[in-house]
Specification:
InterPro entries: ArsR-like_HTH, AsnC-type_HTH_dom, PfkB_dom. Pfam families: HTH_24, PfkB. Keywords: Kinase, Transferase. This protein is α/β, with parallel strands linked by helices and about 350 residues long. It folds into 2 domains: about 50 residues, Orthogonal Bundle (Arc Repressor Mutant, subunit A); about 290 residues, UDP-N-acetylmuramoyl-L-alanine:D-glutamate ligase (3-Layer(aba) Sandwich). The strands form 4 sheets. Strands 6-3-11-12-13-14-15-16 form an 8-stranded mixed β-sheet, with helices on both faces. Strands 5-4-9-10 form a 4-stranded mixed β-sheet. Helix 5 links the parallel strand 7 and strand 8. Helix 4 packs across helix 12 and helix 13 packs across helix 14. The longest helix has 16 residues.
C-alpha cells in the first residue's frame, strides 16, 4: 500500500460514503487519480465490493488446485484389468480447495486463488465455496475444462491409482500472481499446493515475503520445491514425498526430516500413516502417534491434516496443539465418504482431540 493509498483508506474509514471528488479535493489530487488508487485497493483486497467496505479481519490466502473429484471404490478385493463392482462418487476436490473448505468449516476467513472452467463443474464448485463464505472473488473463470481428478480406491479404501487433469492450472501465471499480490502480502500466511506450475511456485516464494505453507501433493510434484526449500516456512509431506525430496532411501524418518531441515526448511511435518506424524524444526523433533480408526476414505486425510495444522497456526496454538488439531482434522476426514467432511467443525475437532 502506497502512502497516498493509506491516506485514502483513512478518509474512507472516517467517512465510508465520501465521494471520489471529495477525496480528490481533500488530498489535492485529480478525481481520476483517486479512481486509479481505489481500483488498486480493490485489486489488493483492502476494499471489498461497493460502498467502500474495508477489509480489516485476518485471513489466510490459499492458492492451488480446484477440481471435480470422481472416486471409485470396490466392494471386494480390487482386481487389475477387470471390471470391479463398487461405488462411484462425485464431489468437489483439489488439494488447495479441500484445505480451503476444511478451514472455512472451522470458521477461518479464507481467500481462494485458483482457476475454473466455464462449465457445470466450475459453476457447482464456485457455488459450494460461496455457500461456505469463502472469498472467491480472485478465482479466475476462463475457457477450458475445469480440472478433474479420478481416483480408484482398493478394498482397504486407500488410493490404488489416480489420474489428474490439471491443464487449466497453467493459466495461473506470474501475471495472475502480480494482479493478486496484495492479497498474498496481506494474508496472515499463504497455503499453496504443488499442482501449481514450478515457475509459479518459485516466482511466488522468491518475490513476496510471507509465511508459505506448502502441501507436496505427490512424489513427482514435490520435486518442484527442491530449489526453494529455504523459502518455505512449513512443508507437509508423506514419507514417500520426503524420501524423494531428500534423496535418502531410508526408513529412518528422523534422518530424512533432519536432512530436509538442513536443506533450508524452517518447519516440516512428515506424515507416516499408522506410525503417526513427525514434526521437525532446527534441533527439534516431535512424534505424534496416531490412534486406530476405521477408514472410510483416505484420499482427503492429508488435506484435512494441513487444514488442521493451519487452523492451529491461525489461532496461535503451540506446536503440540497444532499437531493435535491436525491429527483430529485428518481423523474426521478419514471417516467421510468424500475427500472433505460436512462434520468438520470446531466442536467435532475438539471432540476428536
Amino acid at each position: 500500500m502506497t502512502p497516498r493509498e493509506k491516506e485514502i483508506i483513512n478518509l474512507l474509514k472516517s467517512n465510508p460514503t465520501i465521494s471520489q471528488q471529495e477525496i480528490a479535493n481533500a488530498l489535492n489530487i485529480t478525481r481520476s487519480g483517486v479512481s486509479a488508487h481505489i481500483n488498486n485497493l480493490v485489486s489488493a483486497g483492502y476494499i471489498l465490493g461497493r460502498g467502500y467496505i474495508l477489509r480489516e479481519e485476518n485471513y489466510i490466502a490459499i492458492i492451488g488446485g480446484c477440481n471435480m473429484d470422481i472416486v471409485g471404490s470396490t466392494t471386494d478385493i480390487l482386481r487389475e484389468r477387470d471390471s470391479n463392482p463398487g461405488r462411484i462418487e462425485y464431489s468437489s476436490g483439489g488439494v488447495a480447495r479441500n484445505i480451503c473448505e476444511n478451514l472455512a468449516r472451522l470458521d477461518v476467513n479464507c481467500t481462494f486463488l485458483s482457476v475454473l472452467g466455464q462449465d457445470d463443474a466450475g459453476r457447482n464448485i464456485m457455488s459450494e465455496l460461496n455457500s461456505l463464505n469463502v472469498d472467491t472473488s480472485k478465482i479466475m473463470i476462463t475457457e477450458g475444462i475445469t480440472p478433474h481428478y479420478l481416483a480408484i480406491l482398493d478394498e482397504t479404501k486407500d488410493m490404488y491409482v489416480a489420474v489428474s487433469d490439471m491443464e487449466l492450472l497453467k493459466k495461473l501465471d506470474e501475471e495472475y500472481f502480480e494482479k493478486n499480490r496484495g492479497i498474498v502480502e496481506n494474508a496472515d500466511f499463504v497455503i499453496m499446493d504443488t499442482n501449481l506450475e514450478k515457475s509459479f511456485i518459485e516466482y511466488a516464494v522468491k518475490n513476496v515475503t510471507a509465511k508459505f505453507l506448502v502441501d507436496a501433493v505427490s512424489t513427482a510434484k514435490a520435486m518442484k520445491l527442491k530449489d526453494v526449500l529455504d523459502k518455505i516456512y512449513f512443508l507437509k509431506v508423506n514419507i514417500y514425498e520426503a524420501k524423494a525430496l531428500s534423496g535418502i532411501e531410508s526408513e529412518n524418518i528422523e534422518e530424512i526430516g533432519k536432512d530436509l531441515i538442513n536443506k533450508g526448511l524452517e518447519t516440516l511435518v512428515i506424515t507416516a500413516g499408522e506410525k503417526g506424524s513427525y514434526y521437525f524444526e532446527k534441533d527439534l523433533c516431535i512424534i505424534k502417534k496416531s490412534r486406530p480408526i476405521e477408514v472410510v476414505n483416505a484420499s482427503g486425510a492429508g488435506d484435512a491434516f494441513m487444514a488442521g495444522y493451519a487452523y492451529g497456526l491461525y489461532n496461535d496454538l503451540d506446536i503440540e496443539d497444532r499437531l493435535s488439531t491436525a491429527d483430529a482434522a485428518a481423523r474426521i476426514a478419514l471417516k467421510s465418504i468424500g475427500s472433505t467432511s460436512k462434520d468438520m467443525n470446531e466442536n467435532n475437532l475438539k471432540g476428536e482431540m
